[in-house]
Amino acid sequence: MQDIELHESFKSIEEKFQADLQRLIDRKWKSIADQLAERLKQKKFTAKACRERYEAIQDGTALLPIELDEDKVGRAALREARMAAAKKRRADAAAEIEREKAEKAAAAQKKKDDAARKERERVEAAKQREAEKEKDALLKKLRADEKEAARAARRAAEAQVSAQYRWDLARRQKEKEVYEKMSGKKWHTYQHHHGEELRLQDLLAKEAAKENADDESGESEAVATAKKPESKKAGEKKTDPFDFKAMLTYAVAIGAVENTPPEAPEPVAAVTAVTQADPRSQLDTDQLVAIFKERGLRPQTAQESKDQAIARLCAADQKLTTPELHDLMKRYFIKIKGERGVKLRLLAETEVKRFKE
Questions:
Q1: Residue partners of 300: CB distance under 8 A and separation at least 6
Q2: Which residue range is the domain that position 43 belongs to?
Q3: Residue 227 CB contacts under 8 Å (≥ 6 apart), including other chains
Q4: What is the pTM of this model?
Q5: What pLDDT, on the 0 to 100 scale, is given for residue 234?
Q6: Distance (Å, rounded) from C-alpha 179 to C-alpha 278?
Q7: What is the predicted pLDDT for the residue at 91?
């Protein structure tokens, strides 16, 4: 364990001393080159050249001084090669510097592009969130409109039921008054075998049928009466103060009771964003009238706007039963598939295409 620590310590100090030694060696050869320049009265050789020449002399590989070498051409070629190599090294060093600068510039540009991309992604995400928020708000409004339309339809249905109830109440009161006035009897509630209350006409018809039955059995009653002592004067005819056949004719003739209830006003269909987006909104009035006529619906009136007519047509679509919807789709050669909402959309689009083709 101590040997390992020793080697690690030596390695750390050795690296430091080698770096310091290299700096001292570089300073030494620089000083040698400066002193040589003073001796030659000109700065002709660098510290590197001095070191290489000295080491070559020590190794015995140094060439003769140029002034003593007879091979002037070879020395010139050698000098040119050395200069070319030095020039190449300088060019390679410059190219390396340019490459490093280009890499730094590319890295800086990449960093800039990444920042711009992140900013674009942030903006797109913000826009998407805003679009989703607007979509949620629109869906919320559509649901609120649909609920309001459902409430309006429910109120209209309740109003119609209330009107029917009031009419039935008034009818029964009027029948009671007419019956008691014409028959002199108290009004009683008579029931069918189905549990439905009899109308005035039914009561009068029942009384008339009873009277007819009494007429048919008159002969036997006459025989029974003949056997009884007469209590009234001779020639005095017993008469019924109430002629129920006449009552029936009278009740129908004077129209005391109407047989049909007054029609409640048809509720106005609610115009919503969904109905306004219906494909049939592209059609004109004549085309809409044709669709209403073909579907057996009440045509558009002068008081009804186009949006209200489209809303009423959408409401009629919603009231279609599944067999009725499939019959319409078969009539228009529409493939029956998908959920009910998809089928209704295909039906509306097909009705538009029939006029656009």
A1: 285, 288, 289, 292, 306, 309
A2: 1-62
A3: none
A4: 0.30
A5: 44
A6: 55
A7: 93
Within a domain: 101: no
The total domain count for the chain is 2
Give per-residue pLDDT as tens, 59-74. 888 777 777 777 778 8
The two structure tokens encoding residue 313:
């047509």
Q: Judge whether 316 lies within some domain.
A: yes
Of 62, 83, 110, at which residue does a domain stop?
62
Say what the pLDDT of residue 131 is: 92
Question: Is 97 part of a structural domain of the chain?
Answer: no
pLDDT computed for residue 203 by the predictor: 59
Residue 48 resides in a domain:
yes
Cβ(30)–Cβ(46) under 8 Å?
A: no
Of 62, 78, 95, the last residue of a domain is 62
Contact criterion met (CB below 8 Å) for 171 and 257: yes
What radius of gyration, in Å, describes the C-alpha atoms of the chain?
59
Give every residue of the chain whose pLDDT is below 50, as ranges. 190-197, 219-264
Contact, 313 vs 330, CB < 8 A? no
